[in-house]
User: Fold this.
Amino acid sequence: MISFRGPLAAAQGLDTPGDGAGDRSATAWTDVVGAALVSPETALPVADARDRAVWNRIDPATRAAFLVAATADRGEPWPQPLASAAARVHRDGDREQWQIPAFARQQRLTRATVAAALTADDAWIDDVADGVVLLCEQSSWCWPAHDDTFERHGAVLATVDDPYLDLGAGEAVGQLAWLDHLLGAALDARYPGLRGRIRREARLRVFEPFLRRRDWHWLGLDGDVHNWNPWIHGNVLVAALRLLDGEDDAAMRTAVIALAVEGLDRYVAVLPADGAIDEGYEYWWNGACRALEALDVLAHATAGRVDLAPAVPALRETVAFPHRVHLGGDWYLNLADGQARPVEHKPWHALHRAARRIGDPDAAAHAATHRHPGQPLTHESEGLGRVLRALTDPDWAAASAGDPRSPLPREVWFASTEVLIARERAATAAGLTLAIKGGHNGEHHNHNDVGGFLVASDGVPVVVDAGRPTYTKQTFGPRRYDIWTMQSAWHNVPQIAGHDQSPGAAFAARDVAVEMTDAAGALSLDLAGAYDVTGFASWRRSARVDRRRGAGARVKIRDAWELTGDDAGTALHLLVAGEVALVDGGARVQPLAGAAAVRLRWPADVAATAEVRALDDPMLMAVWGATLTRIRLDVAARREVTVTVERDEMIGEDHA
Assistant:
């Protein structure tokens, strides 16, 4: 029964029940999509490989990139995820040993699929068939780290007759659906029966469990909705549109699609009005962006009769989120488990397409800055569906025309997540940028970081948030906060009488006030609620970027607190990237990537120590290099302190 009615239902005019309200709301999406769906053969918004006018015009750089990579695959054994690697999740928490070959195999299948479409050569269909059969014979499409087989069956390997529908299963069925749509005729001619195998596996592993089980955590039935929801629902939607095409499949097709749309509605319902993502920039691509892509497919599959995204304010606002958190160059404000400089390919074409549909020229311009002439339109790591959308989008191919620029707004305030970003001046990354967050410690992919701030020089983070290391089973288990990057001790927040912040939504900022004027951008908040410490009345933090004409901006972080108990172990931490040299009453930092040096200043009587942390995790090293440095300021004998960040050539003021 489909009974949830959120913003998507309202946009479709289903928010006001008529007579028999309960019955009507339960069947509304089924009625709407059932009447509007086009045929499976035309339901996906990509020209199939028989349309040579489309596939012959793919630009030379993209064509060469895929064909060279696909040709190099030939003669090499297909990557094979092993049982022993899957079991490691339960033994030592390692996820990567299974995921790396599994992902590599699906990326190889994507390359072969694109090569087949580009060349119309049957030899590539053989490679595609090999990859399809390997994927269909894989015991489970669920990534082992997500499977509940151990809890339900006491097994460390997948239980094949009780499949778990997770991100991995969604990606697999989505890939097969796009592949089937693109190459169906060629597969029928060269491998009769293979498409039937695809449909059998999709039904057993995805469609039937999706309809049968309603206890998936990612459905959000308890109101806690996160990025898995649109990621999985979007893939299920695509698969149902194309693969449920048999004579007796119409009812199941409508039911699955209606349930997927209702699920997407739950995600959109919790998307805040300002479009912010509490998981940060990195997760926008696999959360809000996935929802926008799914709704775009739905609009095509209903010939525009169910076109919901432009009518929902939160979806219109979230299209702006990536450029609003852009610091400069490749750098972004990273919150929670995000990366400050994402190292994986992003589907900028998806943002560009959404911005065009929504009518946001700033978001479109930001996306277009990542369309480099002479470079491939996309990368196989994005997944086959995203690859095909990029390859067949002429507006994306032409996006770099006119020298687009990232908007770089002077300041952005996200009230829903209590995040402020304020730069020295608009439309340029030059100078200093301040970002600071309030919020609480129960956010999705949470780090204990209430009151944490970041300072960038020329768009490059100097006072930083480390982000997250490679995921393991521990990352989402009860020992999450044993991981150093998740702890407040490794964020730019106080340590109170030796105590760090505590996890949970109850531990939150209080009395938050924002200022945005021509003279300054600032946030003031009380951090006391983020700590479980007795004898602790308040910790008032004020962070501001002062815009001084002709002298350059200055960032000031002022802390003032009331602590009636033992204050031993009270300190401020500053996590810094770059070359750090302590000097009297401060530190000089040469940032990464050639950004202008900055000077950190604090009162001369505050004792400071610097601890260099060697990085050994590949994800952290890809962003920060070999080390980060934590500066510890001992403020136990004080009740207030101010830290100032200036460009190194500026003259600092005296500090109390």
Observations:
- The first strand starts at residue 326 and ends at 328.
- Confidence is low (pLDDT under 50) at residues 17-26, 651-656.
